[in-house]
Amino acid sequence: MSAKTLRVEGVTRTFPGRGRTAPTLALQPTTVSAAPGEFVAILGPSGCGKSTLLRIVAGLDQPTAGQVLLDAAPVTGPGPDRGMVFQSYTLFPWLTVAQNIRYGLAERGLPEAQQAEIAGRFIARTGLRGFEEHWPKQLSGGMQQRCALARALANDPEILLLDEPFGALDHQTRELMQELLLEIWEADRKTVLFVTHDIDEAIFLSNRVLVMSARPGRIKAEVAVPLPYPRDWTVKTTPEFAALKARLMGEIREEVRKSIAAV
Amino acid sequence: MEPLQPVSPGARVVLGAGFFVVFIAAWGLATYGGWVPPLFLASPGKTLVAGWSLLTEFNFAGDIAITIWRVVGGFLIAALMAVPLGLLMGAFKPIEAFFEPFFSFARYLPASAFIPLLILWAGVGEAQKLSVIVIGSVFQLVIMVTGIAGATRLDLVEAARTLGSRRIAILRRVVIPAAAPQIAETLRLVLGWAWTYVIVAELIGATSGIGHMIMDSQRLLDTGQMIFGIAVIGIIGLVTDLLFKALNRRLFPWAVI
C-alpha cells in the first residue's frame, strides 16, 4: 500500500462531566497534517491531550468537532489502514508471538502460507527469530513492544500511530528500540505519527516535531528536524541535535510548569 | 512463616494430607473414646464397614452412578445455556441491560424451594432432578460469566479494532479467549454447587441416588451409612476438582503463572 496524506482539521475533544464535575476540554481546535512518508513527532507534557489526538486519528475516540481525513476519506472508526502500537502491553496473551503477528492477516482472510510468509518477514525484521512460539508473558517488555510493532506493520497500514510505545521501557532498551524503529521506517517510509514526552526521542526519530501545550492541548510550536537520514545514535552528540534540543526544552519546560501548576 | 511467602510443593502435600489425618483422628477420639454415643455418630471403622456393605450388598455403586449422571447432566445443561448468554451479555451492553435485572432477581430464588413445584410439573423423574440443578446454577453462572466477559481488557479490544476486527470477530477472537480460563474456573466452582443441589433433589421424591440412600439410612438410624454417603460426595468432589484444575492448566498454558 502506498502512504497517504493525513489531515487533522480543527479537531477538538471535550469529555463530558460526570455528576457535578464540569466537562473537561482536552483538546483545543487542532490542525495537523502529515505528508506521505513523513515521520511526525507530537511532543507534550503528560496529560496534554496528545494521546487523545492519536486515539481520534486511530478512530478509537470521536472528536467533539472537526474531522480526520486520510487522503480525501474521513475517518469514522478504527481500521487496519491505521496501525497502532500502544504504551501498555497489548499483545494477546493467549496467542504466541507468531500468532499475534498474524492476527490482522487472519482477520483479512489471507491464505495460511501467505500469513506465515509475511509474519516470518516481520519476525526477522524485529529480531524475534527463535521466539515465534513463545507466549507474550515469556518476553521482556522490549520484546513485547517489538512484537506489537511487527503485528501493526504486518497489516501493511498506510499510517502508523505510535502512542509512547517505548514509554514503559528502561533507557537503554528504549534507545535500541528507537534505532530499530528508525531502521524500519527508513526502509518502508510509512507515514508515522509518534506521540512522546521524550525530547531526545522526538528529535532522533522525526522529520518534524509538533509541541503541544499543557491541557487543554493545542499545537503551540512546530520545529523541523533537518538532520539527514539515515541517522544512528551518533547524531545525538552533534551540535545541531543539541541546538534543537535546547529549543524544544525551552518550549516544553514552560508547558510542564503550567501543567504542574494546574494540578 | 512470613506473610505471602510461598510454600514448597512437598510441604504443601504433607500439610494438606496432615489435616485429613488430624480430622479423622479427632473423629476417632470422639467415637472410640466414648465422647459421642454411637447412635449419633458412627466411628471411622463402623463407617467403613457400613460403606463396604452398601457397596457389596445394596448396589450403592448404582446410586453413585445415577447421582453423577444427574450432576453432570444438569451442570452441562446449565453451562450450555449460561455461558453463551453470559458472553453475549458481557460483550454487548444492551443485551446485558435487557437480561441482567431479571437474572439478578432470579439468582436469589432458592432452587430447593422449587422442588414441590417441579414435582408438580415434571413428576419425580429425572427431569425434575435435572431441573433443580439447572435452576440452582444457571442464573448464578450467567451473572458470573457476564462479569468475566465484561471485564475483558479494553486495550486488547482496542488493539483488535486497530487490526481490523469488528463486532463478532472481537467476541470470537478477543472476548472469548480472554475470558475462557476464568469461565473454566467458574464452571469448576458451579459444579460444586450442582452437587449440593442434586442431594437436595434426591432427599425428596427419589428412589435412587446418594441422597436417597442417605434418607433411607436415616430411617434405620445408620449413621455409618449416612457418613459414608456424605464422604463419598466429598471424595468425588475432590477428584473432579483436581481433574478440572489439571484440564484448565492443559487448556490454558498461557494463563499459568
From TrEMBL, chain A:
Keywords: ATP-binding, Nucleotide-binding, Transport. GO terms for molecular function: ATP binding. It comes from the Bacteria. Pfam families: ABC_tran. Residues 6-239 form the ABC transporter domain. CDD domains: ABC_NrtD_SsuB_transporters. PROSITE patterns: ABC_TRANSPORTER_2 (PS50893). Belongs to the ABC transporter superfamily. This is ABC transporter ATP-binding protein.
UniProtKB/TrEMBL annotation, chain B:
The chain crosses the membrane at residues 12-35, 68-92, 104-124, 130-151, 190-214, 226-244. It comes from the Bacteria. The keyword Transport applies. It is found in: Cell membrane. The keyword Phosphoprotein does not apply. PROSITE patterns: ABC_TM1. Residues 64-244 form the ABC transmembrane type-1 domain. It is a multi-pass membrane protein. InterPro entries: MetI-like (IPR000515), MetI-like_sf (IPR035906). Its main location: membrane. Keywords: Cell membrane, Membrane, Transmembrane, Transmembrane helix, Transport. Belongs to the binding-protein-dependent transport system permease family. This is ABC transporter permease. It comes from Paeniroseomonas aquatica.
